[in-house]
Amino acid sequence: MRNITDDVYRLHAVKANRSFLFAVGLFALVTQTYNISYILFLTGMVRLHTLNNRIYFTFYCTLLLASLIYLAVDRKKELSVNTRYHVCLAAGGFFLLWELCFNLYDVWSSQTAGNVTLDVILMLFAAFFVMRPLYAGVKLGGAALIFLLCAPECFNRGAVINFLFTSMLAVVVYYQRYHHFWIETIQKQELEEKNKELHREQERLRLSHEQYEIVRRSGQFITFEWNLEDNSAHFSEEWGTLLGQPIYVPDVARFVRHAECLAEEDRERLLRCMEKVREKVPFQREEIQIPDKNGTLTWYELHLTTQFDSSGEPLCGIGMLRDIMEQRRRMEKLRARAEIDITGAFNKAAIENYGRMRIERLKAGESMVMVMLDLDDFKRINDTAGHPAGDHVIMETARIMMEEAPSGMQIGRVGGDEFIGILIGPGSLNLRIVTAYAGKLLERVKKISLPDGTPACVSASIGIGQSGRETDSYDGLYAAADHALYEAKKDGKDCIREAEDR
User: Fold this and answer.
1) pLDDT, mean of residues 329-353
2) I need a surface site. Which of 184, 216, 240, 369 has the fewest CB within 10 A?
């Protein structure tokens, strides 16, 4: 799940907690005012003659005073979000502590658990109060635990079970509330970011010509203006210095159609953008490749905005080209990470995608050969030496396969201890190369040692399939190699079988 900043979390937590604490403070203010008034004015001070009643009276006064203080502090507009966040946490902690102490004394004084309301308060805080998991564990869990430990003799078995069940239910309610709060906060943060981006885009459109020039000269992008009336375009100086192109183009459509520096798909993409401007499309964004003056292809993000005259007809196109090579490199790195298994080989999805794509592009005389390796009796290693040792053997197997792999072979892990290698090349020669490679794997796998240096005593079975003879599809080739592997297992393991041998 995407992370959110502390500032954003605290801002939304304060908004949620202030409403809840205001209701709690107001409720406490009303109830404790009534309790105190009842004692002072309706009983003639008689109830204060006993120590027990004076203690209850102190509880009432304490909560009344705390509620007044919180409500007064909450009204201060000059408090920062960070200060309000800590005020809310302190207030929530105090209300929980007061309820815990009040219930403990109530139980001790009456020797019964009949009037306990702590479980209800815990549920309310879990359902409405926004807090970090650590705070929730300390406050809610701590309050429940202290209460059970300090007043066990006042609970019968049924009361204890009910209290524990309610406490656990409060944990579930808290988790669901916190999870939904987290998702809502992320969504709000993303919406705010998009709104800010939209606002920045709108502000850029409002810039005067002078301001626009200042921004253009200080930024790392190319700008242009395309006049639809005469089909000419004026580019910023960077168009010439970076790409070696003329900053004035008298006929943009002709320039795009005949530009040898553009790939066919990029040319079609640009012509389509120009047509959309004439069709009154207000804003477009595309990614295209343009070579610099040294011939190196560079990815640019094109932003094209249509400007209209007073009658609503398209007048010109205002555009910007932003260099996104570094951004695309980062995206490629992230994509590569998503395709790599923990062993360093391709994961199952990645190697399958590669195989399906390459088998459809085979040239005349080429074949795809698949080698499928499976460790023999691998479960024995996990059972006798432990799973860390088993993981070590798998990592070593992947390392050996990649070290010995012929040039151009791609290695992937398709199961717990099952790997495949794919090689494209001339038919018969390709098969001989893979067969020799498989023989090296059998020998090296036998030499794998465990982390403590003792021999792993492991072997492998290998099946080999080749497109053309067995199949022309990836699924068929996989099935052929898998069947050959099955034959190797059936023939005593620690051997190689080719699909054509079956």
Assistant:
1) 81
2) 184
Contact status, residue 67 vs residue 32, Cβ threshold 8 Å:
yes
Which residues are bridge partners to 7 per DSSP?
none
Mean pLDDT, residues 223-232: 88
- Reduced to 3 states (helix: H, G, I; strand: E, B; else coil), residue 423 is strand
Residue 209 in 3-state DSSP?
A: helix
Rounded to two decimals, the pTM is 0.41
Give the pLDDT band of residue 3 (cuts 50, 70, 90): low
Neighbouring residues of 219: CB distance < 8 A, sequence distance ≥ 6:
none
Burial class (CB in 10 A: 0-12, 13-18, 19+), 47: middle
Mean pLDDT taken over the chain: 82
Residue 225 dihedral angles phi and psi, to the nearest 5°: -130, 125
CA dist., res. 173 & res. 125, Å (int): 10
CA dist., res. 333 & res. 329, Å (int): 6
- In the chain, what is the greatest distance between 2 CA atoms, to the nearest angstrom? 109
Residues with Cβ within 8 Å of 230's Cβ and at least 6 positions away in sequence, in order, are 250
Question: How would you label 212-224 residue by residue, b for 16+ Cβ within 10 Å and e otherwise?
Answer: eeeebeeeebbbb
Give dist(CA 354, CA 79) in Å, integer: 58
CA 28 to chain centre: 42
379-390: pLDDT as tens digits: 898 888 898 999
How confident is residue 218, by pLDDT bands cut at 50, 70 and 90? Answer: very low
Name 370's bridge partners.
422, 465
Let me know: does 319 contact 224? Beta carbons within 8 Å. Answer: yes
Contacts 24+ apart (CB under 8 A), 58-61: 59/98, 59/101, 59/102, 59/105, 60/32, 60/35, 60/36, 61/32, 61/36
Whether residue 501 has pLDDT greater than 50? no
Is residue 365 over pLDDT 70?
A: yes
Whole-angstrom Cα distance, residue 185 to residue 178? 10
